[in-house]
Structures are given as structure tokens and as C-alpha cells.
Amino acid sequence: MAVYGALDIGGTKIAGALVDPEGRVVTRTQRPTPAREPAEVLMATVTAVLDELSAHPAWRSLNCLGIASAGPVDTAAGTVSPVNLPGWRGFPLVERVRAHPRVPSGVAPVLVGDAVAMTAAEHWLGAARGVDSALCMVVSTGVGGGLVLGGRLHTGRTGNAGHIGHISVDLNGPVCPCGARGCVERLASGTAIAAYAAAAGWTPPDGGPVTAAAVARAARRGDAPARGAYERAARALAAAIAATAALVELDLVVVGGGVAQAGDTLFGPLRRRMADYAVLDFVRDLPIVPAGLALDAGLIGAAAAAAAPGAADTSGPAGARGAVAPSGPRGVPGSHGTPCGMGGARHPAGPHPGTAGGGTGIGGGDGNGATGSGAPCPGTHGHHATNGTAAKGAKAATVEP
């Protein structure tokens, strides 16, 4: 059985996994991110994760390798410049991963932003499955997002579309590491929540670490500074979500990442604050739900993006270093052994349309077909579409990587 390799690189952890064609994690590993260290120390951690993954017996069946990274990323150039990893600026991550001695010569790593990977995963198997237009957000050490529009992942020219963490929601707010003022990330990330609570007088019990998770526990006990930190984060998120919905008309918002693990401590004030900002008829009552795939969404999405037909083709519109095409053709859906790729690049995890109301997907490949490059068609047996009435305005669709 083929497996898809995945790396998920963020400000807190660098994780790796092998994922099967049904989206199940076969094995995973992770290490803390040395976020303030130089470029080569960061890369050494990535190498260590690859070393551990490649020691697993399933590595011998590696079909593709996806990399989800904190952004900004440049999927065409294969480089990353994460705001929260200052040691990497224009760092050639795809090239360096490809050079790992255990990465097979025929496997071209595919780069996507971490939030785009999460979006691909949630649209394939998670909370956004079957939804026509969705915003999926990662709220963790940083804040990112990805968009599904018209049933297809929308990544933009360089792979950064939906980067909601760097929308300014406070014109006179604190300066963000990106250089702008009042960015959502500066107000609503886990780092920002912990810092704000501490500055307001909250202290962790027993001298423990100052983290958003510890603040959430204090907020549930009624601690005023802790609750204030989550209210502030919720207000920033609500303003950004409402603005995005006004621009592109969304059916659903999915929120994942470590901060979302706070549950109602975050989602309660977030839904209340939406009433202050989402006031037009077409954005009012927008459903906001937790991610369905918890903390492995980035890994599953990276695998899905890499497995997408033509994802590593360098002749498509994205043009370089195994990039995922931001706007190229998505490929002809495979069916029972027919090719499911066209040789050019394809949108990662683009959906095969569902029949009206919630039938099975049209043309979902059965896993025995081949892409333009001869790789197995990743979707197996065509996942069933969800009911078209499950989310406001949603139409039935299935999502295969």
C-alpha cells in the first residue's frame, strides 16, 4: 500500500507523519521547534523528523511528500519566510528536504502553507466536507487561514490566499512582527493571549508556564484577566471573519489549532462577538465550528496536497520546485483505472462534484487509477458527499486529495 509523507512546520512543533490513501495516520513524530534559532538549527530539526519517519517500514512505500509550513510561503519558488521563525527568510525548504538522503529521487516535495493544508484536510475528511465555500483557520502560535470557494481550494498565486492572521483589525493596535499594526495574529494567537493575560495580572498556578492553555483553564475558573484575554482574541477573530465573509460569501467557518482546544472558552465569546460585526443579511448567522481533525489536520492536508494529481508537476502554472498550482486545471476525475490527472498541475485536494442533495461523488477514483505521473489515484472508492443542508447555503460535494 502506498503511503503519503507529510511534514507540518510551525512555531511550536515540527511534526511528520506517514498517511494512507484513506487519510489515516500510519505513524507520526514531532519535535519542539527551535523558533529563535538560526536557519540551520531549524533545518536540523526538520532533518531529525525525516530521519525518524524514514526509519518506519512503511517509508519504503512512500509515494509523495507534502510540506505544510507556517507562512508566508512561496509555493512557486519552494521557499518559506514564516513570521514566527525569523531564522528562515526566503529559505529553500523544498530544495533542502529533497536533498535528504532517504527521500527517493522520484519524490518531489510539495509545499503548501500550514493553514492551506489544514483547509485541504478539513474539506477532504473534516468539518468542511461537502461545503461549497468555507474559511478554515488555524489559531495557534500564529493565526492562518485557507479558503474553499466554489467547492475548490483557493490558494492564490504564491499559495498565501486566506492568510487571515495578517488582516489588521485595530488600526492603532500593537505592531505585529510582520510590520503592520493590529494584525489578528498579534491579538488572537496563543502567544498573544498568554502575553495579554500576564500583562493584565494573571499568573499561572504553581509557577507553571505562561501559555494560552493555562489561560483557558483560568478563564474557566472565572479569572478576570484570563477571560479578558479570550474576549480580546474573540473580538479580533470575529472582525476578521466577518470581513472575509463580506468579501467572498461563506457557508461555514472552521477553527482549529491549539487555541481552539479551549472549546467554549474561545467559541462562546467568538460567536457572541460575531453579532457585532456580521450584520449584513448574507453574513449574519454564519456557522462557526471546531475543526474535525484536531491537531493532525496539517499533516493530513500536507499529504493530501502532495497526493493531488499533478501536484509535483513543474510544467503547470506554478512552474517550479514541485509547486502546487494555485489556479491551474484540477485534472479529470479518475474512475476505475482511468487516468485522474492531465499531466499539468492541479489544485490540491480539489473536489469532485457531488450529486444534488448528498449522493455519492461523481467520478471519485477507486484508488487503482493513475495520475499523469503514474502515481495511485489517492481517493479510494469515492467518499460520500454530506447532506446539502448541513451548513447554511452548502451544496453537496465530495473532496478527494
Structure summary:
With 401 residues, the protein is of the alpha/beta class. Helices cover 27% and strands 17% of the residues.
- Uncertain residue segments: 313-401
Q: How many strand segments?
A: 14
Q: Name the helix and strand elements from N-terminus to C-terminus, one letter apiece.
A: EEEHEEEHEHEEEHHHHEHEHEE
Structural class: alpha/beta
Please identify which CATH superfamily of one domain we are dealing with: ATPase, nucleotide binding domain
Q: Number of helical segments?
A: 9
The CATH architecture name of one domain reads: 2-Layer Sandwich
Largest sheet: 5 strands, mixed
Enzyme class: transferase
Pfam family, one: ROK
Protein name: N-acetylmannosamine kinase
Family: Belongs to the ROK (NagC/XylR) family.
Summary keywords:
401 residues; kinase; ROK_cs; five-stranded mixed sheet; alpha/beta; disordered C terminus; N-acetylmannosamine kinase; Nucleotidyltransferase, domain 5
Folded structure, characterized:
The protein is of the alpha/beta class. The chain has a domain of 162 residues: Nucleotidyltransferase, domain 5, CATH 3.30.420. The strands form four sheets. The chain has a five-stranded mixed sheet with strand order 3-2-1-4-7, sandwiched between helices. A five-stranded mixed sheet has the order 10-9-8-11-12, sandwiched between helices. Strands 5-6 form a two-stranded antiparallel sheet. A hairpin with a 4-residue loop joins strand 5 and strand 6. The chain is globular and about 55 Å long. It starts with a strand and ends with a strand. One of its GO terms (molecular function) is N-acylmannosamine kinase activity. Pfam families: ROK. Its EC number is 2.7.1.60. This is N-acetylmannosamine kinase. Keywords: Kinase, Transferase.
